[in-house]
Each structure stands twice: as C-alpha cells, then as structure tokens.
Amino acid sequence: MGTISARVPDELEAEFEAYLDDEGLDRSTGVRKLLTEGLGEWRQEQAIEKLRDGSITFSRAADLADMSVWEFAQLVEQRDVTWVSERHLDEDLAAL
Fold first, then answer.
1. pTM of the prediction?
2. What is the 3-state secondary structure (H, E, C) of 24-42?
3. Which of 83, 82, 85, 58 is nearest to 72 (CA)?
C-alpha cells in the first residue's frame, strides 16, 4: 500500500479532525474513505462528461464510472443528462 502525504490549510485540518470525530475514524481510515468517495464522484463526472460529448458509449461510461449499466442509467436520469445527440436522432428518424 502506498503512502500519501499532504500539507493542508489549518481550516481544512480542523474540518477534517471534526469529520474524524463525528465518524469515529482514525486519520488513515478517514483519508482513505474521503479519497475513495471523492475519486468515485470524479469518475462519475468524467463518465457523464464523456457521454455528453459523445466520445464514449453508454456502457463504456458505466464502466468508467465503476457502476453497473443500470446504476449508471439511474445516475444519468437523476442528472437529467441527454446522451442521445439530436443530430444522430434526426439522422436515425430520417432513415426510418
């Protein structure tokens, strides 16, 4: 397991200490928990952004977000993400 060390402003350290007290965690566990949650949210945002711009498929976006397709579908619905491009939709409808 790797080691991460960081200097943080006093206010952030005080907030982190309060978080540790509230959650009943030691420093290492608290850092791991927050990093895991934060990186998970970051992966979801990256997946949604790439899905929006059409650079990846829906299933690839779900993989990137580390979610099942069904979980990712719920996230996309909650965020009101349009992932079918109007241009592609118009072309598909014209082909019918």
1. 0.77
2. CCCHHHHHHHHHHHHHHHH
3. 58
- Rounded Cα gap, residues 96 and 91, in angstroms: 9
Assign 96 to helix, strand or coil.
Answer: coil
For residues 36 and 39, give the distance between their C-alpha atoms in angstroms, rounded to a whole number. Answer: 5
The pLDDT-based confidence of 89 (bands split at 50, 70, 90) is low
DSSP code for 55: S
- φ, ψ dihedrals at 5, nearest 5°: -130, 140
d(CA 44, CA 30): 21
Task: Return phi, psi of residue 2, to 5°.
Answer: -80, 170
Q: What is residue 4's DSSP assignment?
A: -
Nearest to 13 by CA among 32, 27, 3, 24: 27
Q: What is the pLDDT of residues 46-57, one digit of tens each?
A: 999 999 988 888
